[in-house]
Each structure stands twice: as structure tokens, then as C-alpha cells.
Amino acid sequence: MASTPVINLRKGHAVRYNNEVCTVSDFELKTPPRMASYVQMSIRTLSTGKVYNLRMTSNESLESVNLNREPHEYSYKDGEDYHFMHPETFEDVILMESQVKNAKDYLIEGQKYTVQFADDVVVGIELPPSVVMEVTESPEGVKGDSANNVYKAATLETGLIVQVPLFIGPGDKISVKTEDNSYLGRAN
Predict the structure, then answer these.
(1) Which domain holds residue 96?
(2) Distance in angstroms (rounded) separating the CA atoms of residues 97 and 114
(3) How many of the other CB atoms lie within 10 Å of CB of 118?
(4) Would the CA dihedral through 47, 52, 58, 60 be positive or negative?
(5) Any idea of the CA torsion for 44, 131, 176, 116, to the nearest 10 degrees?
(6) How much is the pTM?
(7) Of the candidates 39, 64, 89, which is a domain's last residue?
(8) What is the model's pLDDT at position 138?
(9) Where is the Elongation factor P C-terminal domain (predicted)?
(10) What is the domain-level CATH number for residue 155?
(11) Cα dist. 136→68, 99, 184 in Å?
């Protein structure tokens, strides 16, 4: 694969570091007075989510990786394998549990998700910023607790537990932020 000078990298670029495919999550070029310039960056592995903080001189290089993102529809789970179907070619793509990681709490059959390919090999799944899910279990709110912003635990259709306001009940559809599992609001 081609080697790319670190000075040409930007957020979102895919590189290979320690034999793992990583994406650049933070990038800053520093030029201190009377010193050689250097690049301070953070990269995140797609397989494990581990973050590396790197400081490299501006003339160093990293191996660039061709990262493609394609929409796929989540079909079903079979043991520890997750099956996704390409909407146009109907090709079945199988991701292992280690590739799905925390995204499994947001996988709903029939929904579309972005599958990531590095050099034509499946490396993971990219979630949208928020997902609409249905509440399956939620305790009743206690009257009189509404003076403050009081939250209660609610179980969603995938088994994910989210803190929601007291007025949310079973059967309600809510929007959940995938970054931190937080309640965003009711959904239609």
C-alpha cells in the first residue's frame, strides 16, 4: 500500500498502525519556534476502539488504507455472527461479534447501517449519530417527583437500558444518541 506523509493526513483518513486499521480522530500540526515542526494526532483502531496518541515529525509517513463505507441492511444474528445484506446486490456480509462491538445494542432488524471495508475486507460497522427505538419496559413514574428533572431506567427493544424522563412508558418510541446512550427525545 502507499505510504502517506503524516503532514498530509486529516480527520477521517484511514491508516495502518501496529498492523491494525485505524482512523485519524484528531490532528494538529505544531511548529514551535526554533524547532522542527511535528504532528500531534490521535488514531482509533477500528477493530478494538483503542486510541493511540502519536507525536511524529512532519517528514515521517504512515501506510494509508483504502477505507470504503457502504450501506447495508441488518438481517439477523446467528450465534456470534451478525448478517448484513447489501440493498442492491443482495450480497450477505457477516460480521463477528468483535467487529460489531458496542453497536450490537443498536442493531434492529431491517434497519440500514454503514459497513466499513478496509482494502475490501470487512472491518466494522459505523452507527448513525442517533437511533429511534421502542421502549419495552419502564417502571411507572412516581407522582410528585416531577419538580426536578428526574429520570428512570427504561429497557429498549434491543435490551439497551437508557435513562429517560418519568413520562416515557412502554410502547413509546424514543431517539437515543449512539455516542453515549443518552435520551434525546420522543420520536414519531
Answers:
(1) 67-126
(2) 16
(3) 20
(4) negative
(5) -10
(6) 0.69
(7) 64
(8) 85
(9) 131-186
(10) 2.40.50.140
(11) 35, 27, 17
Domain final residue, candidates 64, 88, 112: 64
The full length of the chain comes to: 188
Q: Are residues 149 and 182 in the same domain?
A: yes
DSSP 3-state of 147? helix
Q: How many domains does the chain have?
A: 3
What cell was used for 12? 477521517
Contact 81, 95 (CB under 8 A): yes
Quick: pLDDT tens for 59-115. Answer: 899 998 888 889 999 999 888 889 999 999 998 998 888 778 778 889 988 889 988
Encode pLDDT of 6-36 as tens digits: 888 888 788 889 888 888 888 998 888 988 8
